[in-house]
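anyone else get weird line breaks when pasting these?? whatever heres mine. first is seq + tokens for prot A
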Amino acid sequence: MAGVLAACPSRVTDDPIDQPPGPAPTATLTGRINFEGTPPPNDKVQMSADPYCQMRASEYPTVETVLVSEGGLQNVIVFVSSPITGSYPTPSTPVEIDQRNCHYIPHVFSMMTKQPVNVKNSDATLHNIHAYPQKNPGFNLGQAVQGMVNKVTFDSPEMPLPIRCDVHRWMGAFVGVFNHPFHTVSTKGGAFELKLPAGKFEITAWHEKFGAKTMMVEVKDNEKKDVQFTFSASDKGAD
């Protein structure tokens, strides 16, 4: 599996009903997810049960639970967790989760409710994508043919929503589903950028192993503000 599922205590509200359009983002929040201490080792992947995967084992020798580079933590979902006023249109551009080299790409991503998701199998071996939601209907899609694509959606906000492969137990991913566009995922070095409307917001940073941290941030129109979250090896999440 992809690691320990750490609970997120922050609020993810239901879809707004009959609300006017929400304010447009006019401020920019840039930041970094710092990591203190020695990162714990990731579990090694054993692919010998599938010859196709075994030939590609050197690509991903371990799971991606903890990725630290240049002192920053990758794959942290950063989002506005205080109540959001107004409604926001669903993006028509799909997000994609690909099964490539016996590995989910991306390992962590965020999206809006009802936004289309393309589930793709780029490998010449059987995969499945099994969603384990608490608020959305679950699904388990088998993809036996290379190049197969299934389209799915999530209708309700949910954070986090785990995805796993029952055929290859080391494969796992996490998705944050929101009813607003104010969310992102930290990249290499822990960097992230979040566009926001003017106002005061609770911002949450969530990691699958180390759990969640929050802070209050106030931004003004056209303001650029830098914020820093810090996780450490002693943070246990839901371990």
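and prot B, same format (seq, then tokens)
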Amino acid sequence: MRMMCLSLAAAAALAVAAPAGAEEPRPGAGTVLPPAKEGHAYPECYCTDSRGQRVEVGQLACLQIGQRQITSRCEKARNLVIWRHQEEGCAPGV
């Protein structure tokens, strides 16, 4: 999995020095980030399920691992996105 997120420690450090008029926090970020420099943007944070589909941070997905199906939540951990196991099996609609 590729690293696709700004480190939370770096984000917190940036938030301390954020100038007036800084952008609103992104969902799940928990901090206010300063505007990105001209011509640049912060990377998007998301997971990719076992079918290659994009799953947003905080959403549940059914993952196929070998012969098993598990329900997992896409979460951020430092500067990575991870799958956190929730339960065995998958409920309809997940």
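btw re prot B: The CA atoms of residues 3 and 27 lie 18 Å apart. Confidence is low (pLDDT under 50) at residues 6-29.
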